[in-house]
Design goal:
338 residues, alpha/beta, D-Maltodextrin-Binding Protein, domain 2, 2 domains, five-stranded mixed β-sheet, 16% strand, ABC transporter substrate-binding protein, signal, SsuA/THI5
């Protein structure tokens, strides 16, 4: 009897220990993986960047093990400064900025690795409603353009010249207003025409402050307008992170491609709490309809050359740079194959 009690006790003790080990392993398995932090600096807050907000709101970055924080740094110069100084890991900004940095002899150049938008994102807004708009109507008027040297300004001038308008001779061109204050300046009475991003353009239209009469995106063709980029050293030291980041972006691009404007607007709504949902839906539909959202993250050579042609036409290209010098398509191609 005593012998049996000892055996039973030993068996009970072993069972308890095994149960404890199993429970411990289960608890360990339940512990969430530590997410890798990535800081994005975006050049402006715009529905134009809908796939980025979808990647955040739908958890595509988190699914890849990334803890992404987003900061808006208005203007390409501020965004690039944040990236170069180490205040951000990744920048979402126009590809022209990487050329400017390279031309200044940077030891650690900025590399474009995932394209987000593939057309210009601005619209021509008129103070007066005009159902029979023609570009000739701009001649002799005051035009509020974008910051000199930035993609909006360069594409704007490219399109104006395409329609036989010399922006520096045929217009009273104003370019000395800070990027973040252009819309306010127009709302306050400056200018007869202005170049604006969405949703500001549609909000102005709803409020009767201006009317959208043309799209610079439709007029200019495909161009790497906004791209995710990082310093060459960061990409080299964080290949896994960049691949995961690009995969999340690609998932978001595919999601946007396969969903309605209403569903996309709903997904990005948290990033535009003060914007009318109907306006958001209209804006998404407008951008999607003109093919502004890139459907994959590859920035190809034809788009890169188109960018440099636009810069050259505007007199802002410091030097021609080969596609493979500042563009890395290997990451995007690898992600798309998987």
């Amino acid at each position: 009897m005593k012998k049996w009690s000892k055996i039973s006790f030993s068996f009970l003790l072993i069972s308890i220990l095994m149960f404890s080990l199993i429970a411990c392993n289960k608890d360990t398995a339940k512990e969430p993986k530590k997410l890798e932090k990535v800081r994005i600096a975006e050049v402006t807050r715009s529905i134009f960047y809908a796939p980025q907000y979808v990647a955040l709101s739908k958890g595509f970055f988190k699914d890849e093990g990334l803890d992404v924080t987003l900061t808006t740094t208005p203007g390409g110069d501020k965004t690039m400064t944040a990236l170069i100084s180490g205040g951000a890991d990744v920048a979402l900004v126009g590809s022209e900025t990487s050329i400017y940095v390279y031309a200044q002899g940077a030891n650690d150049p900025v590399i474009n690795f995932a394209q987000l938008t593939q057309t210009d994102g601005t619209f021509l807004v008129s103070r007066e409603k005009n159902d029979n708009f023609s570009w000739d109507l701009l001649k002799g008027t005051t035009f509020l353009g974008q910051r000199k040297g930035g993609m909006p300004q360069m594409v704007g001038e490219f399109v104006l010249k395409k329609h036989g308008i010399d922006p520096h001779k045929d217009l009273n061109l104003i370019q000395n207003i800070d990027f973040a204050n252009i819309a306010n300046a127009f709302a306050s009475g400056s200018g007869e025409f202005v170049q604006l991003f969405e949703p500001t353009a549609s909000i102005f239209e709803k409020e009767g402050k201006g009317y959208i009469v043309a799209s610079f995106g439709k007029e200019s063709g495909h161009v790497p307008y906004t791209t995710f980029m990082a310093k060459q050293s960061y990409i080299k030291d964080n290949k896994g992170v960049i691949e995961k980041f690009t995969r999340a972006v690609y998932k978001a691009q595919q999601w946007v491609q396969s969903h309605s404007a209403e569903e996309i607007a709903k997904a990005v709504e948290p990033f535009f709490p003060d914007t009318d949902p109907e306006i958001m839906k209209t804006v998404v539909d407008r951008y999607k309809g003109q093919g502004s959202f890139a459907t994959n993250p590859i920035l190809d050579e034809e788009e890169w050359n188109n960018l440099q042609n636009i810069m050259k036409e505007a007199g802002e290209l410091p030097k021609e740079v080969k596609h493979d010098t500042l563009v890395n398509t290997e990451i995007a191609e690898k992600v798309m194959k998987k």
